[in-house]
Amino acid sequence: MSADKPIPAKLKARQPRGFVDRGPADVAATERMLSVIRESFSVYGFDPVETPFVEYTDALGKFLPDQDRPNEGVFSFQDDDDQWLSLRYDLTAPLARYVAENFDALPKPYRSYRVGYVFRNEKPGPGRFRQFMQFDADIVGSGTVAGDAEICMLAADTMEKLGIKRGDYVVKVNNRKVLDGVMEAIGLGGEENAGRRLTVLRAIDKLDKFGPEGVRLLLGEGRKDESGDFTKGAGLHSDAIDEILGLLNAAEADDMVQDAIALFPTDYEAIQTMSGLGFVDEEFKADDSVAAAAVARSRFMINDKYRAGIQELTNISALLQAAGYGPDRIRIDPSVVRGLEYYTGPVYEVELTFPVTNEDGQVVRFGSVAGGGRYDGLVGRFRPEPVPATGFSIGVSRLFSALKAVKSPIVDSRNELPLVVVTAMDNKSPEFMPGYQAMVSALRQAKDENGRPLLRADLYLGASGFNAQMKYADRRGAVCAIIQGSSEREAGTVVIKDLILGAELAAASRDVKDSAEHKAKQAEAQFAVPVAELVEGVKRVLARHS
Amino acid sequence: MSADKPIPAKLKARQPRGFVDRGPADVAATERMLSVIRESFSVYGFDPVETPFVEYTDALGKFLPDQDRPNEGVFSFQDDDDQWLSLRYDLTAPLARYVAENFDALPKPYRSYRVGYVFRNEKPGPGRFRQFMQFDADIVGSGTVAGDAEICMLAADTMEKLGIKRGDYVVKVNNRKVLDGVMEAIGLGGEENAGRRLTVLRAIDKLDKFGPEGVRLLLGEGRKDESGDFTKGAGLHSDAIDEILGLLNAAEADDMVQDAIALFPTDYEAIQTMSGLGFVDEEFKADDSVAAAAVARSRFMINDKYRAGIQELTNISALLQAAGYGPDRIRIDPSVVRGLEYYTGPVYEVELTFPVTNEDGQVVRFGSVAGGGRYDGLVGRFRPEPVPATGFSIGVSRLFSALKAVKSPIVDSRNELPLVVVTAMDNKSPEFMPGYQAMVSALRQAKDENGRPLLRADLYLGASGFNAQMKYADRRGAVCAIIQGSSEREAGTVVIKDLILGAELAAASRDVKDSAEHKAKQAEAQFAVPVAELVEGVKRVLARHS
Q1: What is the DSSP string of A101-112?
Q2: Smallest Cα–Cα separation from A484: which of A455, A460, A503?
Q3: Which of A87, A277, A515, B105 qualifies as a cystine partner to A75, CB 3.0-4.6 A?
């Protein structure tokens, strides 16, 4: 570059709002978490599939046909042939496209899982990003609720494999048909009431947040929040509101169990006939599906849709019992509705029940980390035949926070290999670097008894002096540092410094420091070995801290 | 939906050009491959880091300042504040932004690795996609060529860990300063010749493709290809062309080795003084860096830049020797230049040397799967201080093809858990589903002696009859199928059908089929066990085929 050119202004290194970087501990622990989920899904017979990040906007269902442009909530751009492309906003719409495109080649029912980032062009906020990861499992081409039951069991097993104890999670199941039946009965059936039905759904979905009184307002005229903002309600009459709220109150209904069993005896009989895999639990039978019974008591039992919903829930309940999943793991809960419009049958949600302290200092349940349901219409958008489907989606970063909250071993950084830093005391003289290079290479070849790598080894490659190099080793969390100055070089030795023990000793009181024991430990914390015994010496230090 | 609404036209399920889906075998095998690379990079002290897919266009260096819009080669869209955002087109530009933004918080030198998809808004073609995966490792904040040497060793180790044998790959190293020195000497120095220097670089980069005569044309007036298209050349005089071509011809220079060692004795002496880690190989010394010597013979030795380049290569050579990496794994090759303009020092390329048959039926070397170099200017775009950096990038899908070509065990599908399909013979009657559900759940809990899952188990959830269910099991590649009809149910048993042995027996000749041995095997291929012994029975079948 010639000297008379103006120096260009420096760019500012910055990120667009709602996008974040992730550092080493998070990346490594998330990777371990994803491996556990992959294996869990795989054991259930699900196969991985991967679709690209970019799809035609119309295939995602995000094209606004009246306005000839994409929904603003998705990141979109035009291809060179002017067609609109978008970044995927979930993993379900691309799956529907994939299955439709490869319909004849896929085994059906088609069980698959997918993991990856999705994008929302929405206003970011605390814990709300414009790029976030989902992990989905779906069964496409099966209309039986046995598929929904399988997804619920898979969700429960996956939580336990990730280190979330039984009792700290619950999979809640409900059926949209139950609520649809009630809505039909109170006069909200038909295409013309689609908007009001959605308002009802969203009101019920707020039960956790606003409580029954808040939902009552949202089902009626509307609700004003603390800031004075008014949300218009569904405008239902108080009788209708009572019916819906009654439906959600599972706790009142303990004595209704026998009624439900009397109504749908078939599956309970089936359980009796099942052969002896040792799964059916006497206690479970007594406890039984309290909540299913609660919904069964409603006067809407006369309604076909409602009956179908209850029948499906009872079938799910029988399948869960057969496989040994009691209500401590999976239970029917009439308050679960899921906010999305496209669900057509069973819906489910994975809730973590252990307490955490929220941003306002209140102790609350951790809450939902995954959810899903049956969506029999989505694949059918592309196909001449109806294609039933069910599936669920894990919010990966939320689940990751949960694993950290319960201190799951999966996200423990002790799962990483220990780091050894080879310092380069004479780094001003390039002729000594090959010697340091030989040491770090020898360390990298160290293996444990199973032939697996024993450690990570780093050679200091900066230009700073020895003190800065020791700080570097600390900052990187190294277990030990390797040092060779001129005197060691001449003696054919190398010094191994145990940084963990060293830090402990440095923190000791003056009295302790004068003791003979302390001095003996100091000798352990920093010792010289012949260069040829470097790896053995490091192994001794690692063994102290494993 | 009311009956009088028109039925909407079905959407066509299709993908934008240059984007592809990936099926189960590819996804699972790629995941195993990435795990091996992760571990290999981790052992070298590299930490993972992840940056988002979306960056400010100017941070990527892809904003065209004169035209106030992004480069067409990247996918771009405007944020709601009208700033331009782009999908990342490589993993290096986001790293530069990340390091600059977090400069004070990062340990320096900063070793990191990253993996992920990148996007190019270019014309797709065979093997050229608009979304593809890269796996990068970089050392930022270190100006010593010891960093470049480390990256080369890391590349070599990674190839071997992936199952590519020594001799089937070579890491080639060169230094841009050598060529820059030559270009300066032949009058191509200075900012005003930047364009011609790039033309020279790109011409040399075509040596593999067009041979020395093709490069000669591209360095001179230009070259016409088979289709008649003319590529304008660098317009060099024939003397200058001879110098450059001489520089690339390593084979001529065997007798120049001793000259180079005489010129740069220091590092060779350092090797002599190195203590006994058992790495220095006598044979290696004799063989020595032939190619480094070849470039050293040039008359441009008088030129400072050239001398600096040779000195750096000699230092790299000494480091490689010290760590025991002979020229069978890493060697200096003056023909490597890399097409990118931003490299400032050592450049390197990982070439796979085993033969493959290309699309035209010719047997060729597999070719390059990774490459990189020193880019001391990129991070400095954001920072007041200069920030030297070096790194390389693996083309993941190309490397994946290579592993398949050499039949690496890493990509072998036998690494997957075997699949067992539980059929649902009486799937028309929902009351029998809980029994099948109990079986599949029991299978999913089967563990090997280390407590790891033993198998994958799938319950057939479709509506088809028994023959279709057996076809489903075949299509999914199941090892065995579990069958329970009414007679088995009454007897409390279940049938286990070994699909692999079954297929072998079905393929036998008529004579063989009549034999007693065949009949004995048939009994092994399909047998009944009490339901409680299902898992043990399946274990017997899996043991046959492991």
Answers
A1: HTTTTS-SSEEE
A2: A460
A3: A87
